[in-house]
Sequence to fold (341 residues):
Amino acid sequence: MRNRGYNSYRGRSSGKKIALVVVLVVLLLLSAAYLLLQDRIIYRSDGSIGLDLPFLQGDQLPADDGESLPVEILPDDEEDAPGETTAPLLAREVSAAELTAETLAALQTEGYNGIVVEMKGFNGMFAYTSAYATSQALEENAVSAAAVKEALEGHGDRTAVAKVDCFHDSFHAFADMAGSGICQSNGYIWYDELSSHWMDPAKEGTQTYLAGVVRECVDMGFDEILLTGFTYPAGGDQSQIDDSGRTMTKTEALAQCLAALREAAGEETLLSLQLSQEELLSGRDEVSGMDPAVLLPLVDRVYVTELTDRAAAESVLEECGSTAALAEVSDDGNGVTVYSE
Fold:
């Protein structure tokens, strides 16, 4: 007999709960399976995904096409881009007055890939109209800086090297005795065995002057500055030199000056040093201040004159920890100076 007004409760909602429990169980099982098998997931070259299960494959070898192999993801290595091959330097020295399009074209046909131009020479003579040169210090055929710049703008891929002789400079040393010159104890300029004058690398006036010359050469378009005569005087009556105000060694002064010239040249311009083989192989010299171990690591290239033992020269560079390139300065037999790596 039925109860009036009431229907028996048959648990209609229990089916939904069971279905929900089943779904949750399945999700948990799938999650657990993923955690267990994630190291076995493979990504094939065609973009599909699969599983690598050795226990199902027996002793079968991997397929030759590699599609069933697990993909090992490694950091991307930069591909070795084809390096730009730079030919060893083979340069010929020309005068500033010879800097013409015709001369540069002729040198190229002769196989030269560089030129070396002496812009400031022995005893302070200038081959161009420098703002730092007195009228007495200008060579008779000195050219304008604008003309040099115009010529170099068309030099193409050639290396243009400005050669600058440094401290043996009678004109500037005499004009600025206190600020630049090597002087006697009475304050007057010192004379060497040739009755010429020298600048003191330790003095601010010397460094400012040479840095200005270097900047002019860079502005004219030179790719490299080659410093020559980069030592204190080794001859003359050294006892007459006034060293009472010296606060650093000669080598330290040369290194400081070299650092100032490096800054003046900038990052885009090479800075090089020219030495004789004897200077290079003899090592430290207290009179001249030359010390390859200190100075050579500060330059990009070392030019050596009278080079007869290249292996010994390379050994010195290595011992100094210098990465500078080694180049030779020689005569081609016809009175032409050649610079070659």
Observations:
- Confidence is low (pLDDT under 50) at residues 1-13, 58-64, 66-85.
- The first strand starts at residue 41 and ends at 43.
